[in-house]
Amino acid sequence: MQAHVNTIAFNGLDTLDVDLQLQISSGIPAFNIVGLPDKTIAESKERVRAALNSIGLELPAKRIIINLAPADLLKEGSHFDLPIALAILAGLGIVPAEEIANYIVIGELGLDGAIMPVNGVLPVAIHANRRNKGLVCPEIEGSEAVWSGLTDVVAAPSLLSLINHFKGVQQLPKPIARQRKSQASTLDMSDVKGQETAKRALEIAAAGAHNMLMVGTPGAGKSMLASRLTTILPPLTTEEALETCMIHSIAGELKNGEISFERPYRDPHHNASTPALIGGGRKGVPGEISLAHNGVLFLDELPEFNRATLEALRQPIETGYVSISRVNCHTQYPANFQLIAAMNPCRCGYLGCQGQECSRAPKCAEEYQSRISGPLMDRFDIHIQVPPVSPWEMSEVKKGESSAVIRQRVVAARKIQEERFKKLGYPTLHTNSQLKGDLLEDAVKLDAETQKMLIAFADKMKMSARAYHRTLKLARTIADLQNEQKVSKVHIAEALSYRYVMPSKQV
Do residues 75 and 38 touch, judged by C-beta distance below 8 A? Predict the structure, then answer.
């Protein structure tokens, strides 16, 4: 007796076809799985055996061999449980093998026959749609699969219900696409007292997707500002939401099959390891920078992060993706995130603060600031100082602008950018932070006087070529927020004002 079941193996976001082949033959009773399975798949034998026993079925006293083809591809994960069980059921003639062949099957089995959730249902559903196949998956993740556009989704709660469905004695309900409710209702920019310069800089950062570094004493409101950035960003498009949720699905962070249209906000602790931040580990799982794809990555207490970990950020910031190489895999994940960072001016935090003293200035500041390399600093478009909020500002009753009002200006500025990119022949680009080379020159054309002013400041401030170009991008965004076609002196001057140089001595 033989049977075939279609399933998949993961390599990052890529889904690779696996032909699960079953052979039941006479001989000494045995149950073997071959084809380079990992330990999780080797343990599937006992889960499958128990699940079949729970519905009154026993494995035949024969030689059962499961082959996972291609044999040279490493197979990992508990999602092979259900394909193995269905292959056995098809081989025994309990379910129709011809109908099963029209589906890609994934799912973990409980000992009681329940079909348990697994990671990566969304990318598998997209893969099945491309292959003109249906999908068999756990019931709780059926909603996730429907978002792919796939219409033939069989989402089953248990092995018995799945058998009855394919035998025609039970009709499983079609899953419905569900959207996660908003989680950011309590956060608003109007909550921030004072800090008008910082709020303006945050609006510019949102409009052009610029990276931003905030420097200020403890309690100045840096974290508060960063946590509200997503409230002024445009919501995700359907395409962006699917791309983002695919990563979260692989990482097992997509709950109840619900797709979110909110931009992700990730704020890892400063003791996070390089694999946790960048991605990696034995299986090459996505890190925080990929989980922040199309959203915001906030690094608080920036100098406290491991230096090697921070340096690993440089390449993803420029390219928008991260490559993870391991002995048994080479994986690439998207990592197009907006980096927002915060730090104190020195270790004690009070350098340059009126009414406070840094006990070890200037050595305290020099040692602390040296933890961040020049190349990494260059990758921040905006460097601003966040001063302490005065008592009279804290007591102010009148609230500032709401996130909704600011978001309208941000959305309008981004629309201007997208239209410009389309006219220039780059429809896949969306924000000024993506401007490079000739495209930057086409988007930012300065008159002779403005160019002269910028060069003079760049020379005085010892700006690198990267910092010079980032200043141009920033000025372009400022002009877009004001709906002005030409980048003028005023825009360049404001962009230069966001190149804050941290003090190295007590003032």
Answer: yes
Bridge partners, 24 (sequence order):
64
DSSP, res 498? T
Q: How far is CA 213 from the centre of its chain?
A: 20
Cα angle 248, 252, 256 (rounded to 5 degrees) comes to 90
Alpha-carbon dihedral 257, 261, 263, 264, rounded to 10 degrees: -10
Specify which residues 440 forms β-bridges with. Answer: none
Per DSSP, the three-state class of 117 is coil
| 3-class DSSP state of 269 | coil
Distance, C-alpha 455 to centroid of its chain: 37
User: Do 259 and 179 contact (CB within 8 A), yes or no?
Assistant: yes
- 460-471 pLDDT, tens per residue? 888 888 889 999
Q: What is the number of residues in the chain?
A: 507
User: What is the second-level CATH architecture of the domain 412-497?
Assistant: Orthogonal Bundle (1.10)
> Parallel, antiparallel, or unpaired: how do β-strands 265-266 and 2-11 relate?
unpaired
For the chain, which residues score pLDDT lower than 50? 505-507
**Reported pTM:** 0.90
Q: What token pair was written down for 101?
A: 């062949």
Per residue in 365-423, pLDDT tens?
788 888 899 889 989 999 999 988 776 666 666 778 899 999 999 999 999 999 999 99
What's the CA gap between 294 and 205, in Å, rounded?
Answer: 14
Name the residue ranges covered by the structural domains of the chain: 2-167, 189-406, 412-497
User: Under CATH, to which class is 189-406 assigned?
Assistant: alpha beta
Does domain 2-167 match CATH 3.40.50.150? no
Q: What is the pLDDT of residue 506?
A: 41
- Rounded Cα gap, residues 472 and 368, in angstroms: 29
